[in-house]
Design goal:
0% of the residues lie in helices and 54% in strands. By secondary structure, it is mainly beta. The strands form 5 sheets. Strands 20, 21, 22, 23, 24, 25, 26 and 27 form an 8-stranded antiparallel beta sheet that branches. Strands 11, 13, 14, 17, 18 and 19 form a 6-stranded mixed beta sheet that branches. The chain has a 5-stranded mixed beta sheet with strand order 2-9-8-4-5, with no helix packed on it.
């Protein structure tokens, strides 16, 4: 009986994975042929209806698969699509809050992405494959930080039909979670426009803005600032700041600090 292939499993994938070939008349198979015949492998197991073989490294794209028997017969060919390993080049933004947040990932061979992993935090959700070079995902929420810990950097890796993206480590394929900032005290508690107010708190890292919010309502003002340490930032009040009571809110990649009585001053 001439060999006939009816199905391949998988129909797309990468080298090192096992392929199962299903059909009839396969019991005397001695070779599995990939592509133009440049890759000919000895199967790892053979029955009359199935042949298994380890997928070799192949040119990207379609590579037809056939089998040859001891009688010198060659089966029909079925298409197999070889997918090269994925590569991440950019994670944007590369930092964000402890809460779940959207992230864009850019690279190569991303079209068959099935999972995006954020270190030991877990897998992202809502993976949208935009193109072979871009996808979006929602990073999983970070568990509560230990006391005194403000950031956690994890490796971002994608899983595709071509395997898992390369070695962890480069900063371009990492994501940093930031604990939310807090304001615990101010010095002085009353000030004049244009003067300095020192803000004390926790996780005052990579500050984006220092906002002065009127407690009586109205539009907030922005103060200039100089970061001193994760627990201290010096602010300069605007010269045009009207009289009143203000709450200082510090914004970092971890979010905006809440309004508290300890973070208020008067002008």
């Amino acid at each position: 009986m001439a060999p006939v292939i009816t199905a391949l499993n998988p129909v797309q994938g990468h080298d090192g994975a096992t392929m199962t070939i299903t059909g009839t008349g396969l019991g005397t198979t001695i070779k599995v042929n990939f592509g133009c015949g440049c890759q000919t492998l000895t199967p790892s197991s053979v029955t009359s209806t199935t042949v298994t073989v380890e997928i070799p490294q192949l040119p990207e794209g379609q590579n037809n698969v056939s089998v040859s028997t001891t009688a010198g017969q060659t089966s029909n060919a079925r298409p197999f699509f070889y997918v090269g390993p994925p590569q991440i080049t950019v994670v944007s933004p590369a930092r964000g809050p402890a809460a779940a947040a959207p992230v864009s990932i850019y690279g190569n061979r991303l079209l068959t992405t099935t999972e995006v992993n954020f270190g030991d935090i877990g897998s992202g959700t809502n993976v949208v494959r935009v193109s072979d070079s871009a996808l979006t995902v929602v990073a999983p929420a970070h568990p509560s930080f230990e006391p005194g810990v403000c950031t956690d950097t994890v490796d971002v890796m994608v899983s595709t039909a071509g395997g898992v993206s390369g070695s962890p480590g480069p900063s371009s394929v990492q994501y940093t979670y930031y604990n939310a900032p807090t304001v615990t005290s101010l010095s002085p508690s009353s000030a004049t426009p244009g003067s300095a107010v020192t803000v004390f708190g926790t996780c005052l890292l990579d500050i984006i803005s220092a906002t002065l919010t009127p407690t009586a309502g109205g539009n907030p003002f922005q103060a200039t600032f100089v970061s001193i340490s994760p627990s201290q930032v010096n602010t300069i009040l605007p010269l045009t700041l009207p009289s009143g009571t203000y709450a200082v809110q510090i914004t970092t990649p971890g979010g905006q600090s809440p309004i508290t009585p300890a973070g208020q001053f008067t002008v």
